Amino acid sequence: MKEIRAIVDAYSTIDFTKNQASLATVVRVEGSSYRRMGARMLVKDDGNYLGGISGGCLEGDALRRAQKAIASQKPSMITYDTTQDDGHQVGVGLGCNGIIDVLFTPLGNDEPGNPLDILSGLVDTRMPRIMVSITGPNNNQHMLGRSWIYENEDQFRGAFAMPEILGDLLKDIVLAKESLSSKSVLYQTEEGQTQVFIEVVLPALQLVLYGANYDLYPMARISRELGWNVTVVTNIARAGKSLFALADKVVHNKGDELPQIDGFTAILLMSHDYKTDFSNLQKSIHTNAGYIGLLGPRKRALKMFDAMIADGRPLTKKDQHRIFAPAGLHIGAASPEEIALSIIAEIQAHFAGGTGTPLRLKKGAIHSD
Prior knowledge:
This protein has about 375 residues and is an alpha/beta fold. The chain has 11 helices and 15 strands. The protein has helices at about 1-10, 60-70, 115-120, 155-160, 165-180, 215-225, 240-245, 275-285, 300-310, 315-320, 335-350, and strands spanning about 20-30, 40-45, 50, 75-80, 100-105, 130-135, 145-150, 185-190, 190-200, 205-210, 230-235, 250, 265-270, 290-295, 325.
């Protein structure tokens, strides 16, 4: 979401009476690649660009093709094949051994289905959203590059312009929404083939920190660098000015306001006071937070769990899956910055379905899609 937000912000500042722009989007990946489906690059007619579609070796060619889309005002889809050991092949230096389809879409021409107009309304979403784009073939110019938002089946049936694939597409949208994973699907019709990119746009992760000590700051700094939303629940009278600059929101721990917590929220209890953390743990369990972490030794957390059992409120299986105590991956962390790194890495792994296993020990592809 960080890249989408940055591109949307940059797009909103373009004066299309004076400048033009186009968008490059990775819409299909086969094999290995540095960036995954949904990676984007906003290109202006002056050659400036924001974002990226690879580790750097495809951007030069993509820049030229994006400017060609601006000049022609026609979208196109280009396939980059880095599986061939050919020194003349664009992207051979990528070393990823994959095939990448990139859609180049001119912007600012008032054509229906502008993807950035749609994404502009999704940057603050707190629930998964679906955007559907026609990505091929190139001879289907009147539809290529058009995008639609999926709100519900009735709305989409009334909006989508290709009824011949609608039934199968709706089934695939449901599957993508259930799995929370984007997918590229090829549909066969009497007129030929149509490639569709079903993109699941996930909310930015939200981190809610309960505490008042100096170790809040590296947690907030690293989270903001990742594009996460950060809320701190603390004694405002003791909070430094820099905390208000780092956090999206600071909530008084004795006030009536409560942080807004959803399934894409990670809670971290770091007051370093047993009673306070225990009280906040019991409150956190009653939220939809996807991750609840506790600082401190395992013995301290077990004491809390035993107290809950004695009170007739044992942890459910759902709670056992989302509570991490002690929080963090075992990376030998000692300083507040290192501890923050270990915890944030664990949060990322949890929400992304990773294991925290060193990649050199992982069997198979790095990415599952």
